[in-house]
């Protein structure tokens, strides 16, 4: 397994840089790498125990491979395959496929990292590859959006690196476990870097513009897998260091509400999807122990939604109400919308039920509100007009990609088949019904336009600074370090039970 893992990590980088020598078969080489990752992910699910090894002792690199890694790697493999199918008949150059494969490989690397320094290297490679993909059209707008992304990303990683050094000073190790007993400022700086990188809470407000303005396949990659490179370490840290679990859950619940709060009022389809990426990442963090399954489901559904949104006749949801969508495309759009809303028979149902069952009492109300907001948002797609127009001229690659992603949602539905009980089915159906009712009675007619001030470039770093202050307060200001934080959290839980 160790040799296979090293080959699997090195292969995307080797193939990525070799594509220039063989540009005519660039697509096939990229496809081969993604299929290899798919096979590797399936091997992980057959492991009977967690596989861990060190390459450079305490200085790094520490790798941990288990089912959690498997879910994230499987997501990356399927989304990358779908994007390659989508681009198969396009005029994308070898440069595009090079960046896709390097991005794929570096994202994979983050999903098995268990030390801060190798994670830092992988995240920086991701930043460069994502920057080049966002700027691929070479338009003034795309270059500006790419530079904006790179600036925010690199600033966040600077904070992260300082935090990683402080952890090493405390334990002479970069291991994630070193968070336990590290100074609060180290944890705050590392968390700030990961929250910003993963598009979490207000430090992730760079995400809506970046994801909505990128080319369709790049948006699918960014929302489907790239942001999870920042989310996975938070989930892994919460599982390895129990003291930070409450902090991760707090950001999970607040991020879910923040994202869905913007999404329900958004009138631009791609921006609505981007805000829902923020919200759904919150669901992953809200219950870290089952976050892998939710990440898989979200990756498949969000990639399919971005690919579909890319061929709709307009981005404006008001205009789409007066344009009949070709029925096959509408059916695909509805299936994906049903899944993310938690409708039975698709994996979104099982993922939501499993997440809700693993929430702490104080999270339940917030996450149910977020689920209701999701149903309201995606009613905008479900109730769009449709007809068998025959006017859509999508390429064959589109349907191959959508079939793979939606087929994955149906198959993954079996991962948590225990979810299918009467009680579990009734609750999400009621939530969806209430969401649709609220949409028709209020949100469909609402003309509220939320301010985009916080998303402006000038304010992104300022917002990041506010999050850093909040993190200091959580890790340090709430008392004398994590112990007090944990005690406060325990007291809060006891108080909540008494109130109930």
Envelope shape: globular
Report on the biggest sheet: 2 strands, antiparallel
What's the domain count? 1
In the predicted model, the low-confidence regions spanning at least 5 consecutive residues are none
Beta-strand content estimate? under 5%
Major sheet strand order:
1-2
Structural class: mainly alpha
Count of strand segments: 4
Task: Average the pLDDT over all residues and give the rounded result.
Answer: 89
Number of helices: 21
Summarize the helix and strand pattern as letters. Answer: HHEEHHHHHHHHHHHHEHHHEHHHH
Distance between the termini: 49 Å
Assign a percent range to the helix content: over 70%
Q: Radius of gyration, Cα only, in angstroms? A: 22 Å
Keywords: Cell membrane, Membrane, Transmembrane, Transmembrane helix
Subcellular location: Cell membrane; Membrane
Membrane topology: Multi-pass membrane protein
Protein name: NADH dehydrogenase subunit 4-like protein
């Amino acid at each position: 397994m160790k040799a296979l893992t090293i080959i699997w990590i090195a292969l995307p980088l080797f193939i990525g840089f070799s594509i220039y020598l063989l540009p005519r078969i660039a697509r096939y080489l990229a496809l081969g790498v993604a299929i290899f990752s798919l096979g590797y992910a399936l091997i992980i699910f057959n492991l009977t125990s967690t596989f861990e090894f060190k390459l450079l002792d305490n200085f790094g690199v520490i790798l941990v491979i288990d089912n959690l890694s498997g879910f994230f790697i499987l997501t990356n493999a399927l989304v990358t395959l779908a994007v390659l199918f989508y681009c198969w008949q396009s005029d994308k150059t070898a440069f595009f496929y090079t960046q896709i494969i390097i991005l794929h490989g570096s994202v994979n690397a983050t999903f098995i990292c268990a030390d801060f320094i190798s994670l830092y290297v992988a995240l920086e490679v991701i930043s460069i590859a994502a920057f080049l993909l966002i700027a691929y059209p070479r338009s003034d707008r795309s270059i500006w959006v790419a530079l904006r992304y790179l600036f925010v990303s690199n600033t966040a990683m600077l904070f992260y690196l300082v935090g990683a050094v402080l952890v090493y000073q405390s334990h002479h190790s970069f291991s994630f476990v070193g968070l336990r007993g590290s100074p609060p400022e180290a944890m705050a700086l590392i968390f700030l870097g990961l929250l910003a990188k993963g598009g979490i809470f207000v430090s992730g407000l760079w995400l809506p513009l970046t994801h909505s303005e990128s080319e369709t396949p790049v948006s699918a990659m960014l929302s489907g897998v790239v942001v999870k490179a920042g989310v996975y370490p938070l989930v892994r840290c919460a599982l390895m260091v129990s003291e930070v679990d409450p902090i991760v859950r707090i950001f999970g619940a607040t991020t879910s509400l923040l994202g869905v709060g913007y999404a329900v009022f958004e009138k631009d389809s791609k921006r609505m999807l981007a805000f829902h990426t923020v919200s759904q990442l919150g669901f992953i963090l809200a219950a870290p122990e089952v976050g892998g399954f939710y990440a898989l489901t979200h990756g498949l559904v969000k990639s399919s939604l971005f690919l579909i949104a890319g061929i709709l006749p307009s981005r404006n949801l008001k205009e789409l109400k007066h344009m009949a969508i070709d029925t096959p495309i509408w059916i695909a759009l509805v299936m994906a919308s049903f899944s993310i809303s938690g409708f039975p028979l698709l994996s979104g149902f099982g993922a939501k039920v499993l997440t809700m069952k693993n929430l702490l009492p104080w999270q339940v109300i917030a996450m149910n509100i977020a689920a209701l907001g999701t149903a309201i948002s995606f009613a905008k797609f479900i109730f769009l007009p449709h007809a068998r127009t025959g006017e859509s001229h999508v390429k064959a690659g589109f349907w191959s990609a959508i079939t793979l992603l939606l087929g994955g949602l149906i198959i993954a539905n079996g991962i948590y088949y225990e979810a299918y009980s009467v009680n579990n089915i009734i609750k999400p159906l009621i939530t969806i019904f209430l969401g649709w009712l609220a949409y028709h009675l209020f949100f469909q007619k609402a003309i509220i336009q939320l301010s985009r001030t916080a998303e402006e470039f000038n304010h992104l770093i300022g917002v990041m600074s506010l999050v850093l202050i909040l993190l200091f307060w959580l890790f340090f200001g709430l008392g004398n370090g994590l112990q007090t934080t944990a005690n406060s959290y325990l007291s809060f839980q006891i108080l909540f039970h008494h109130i109930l």
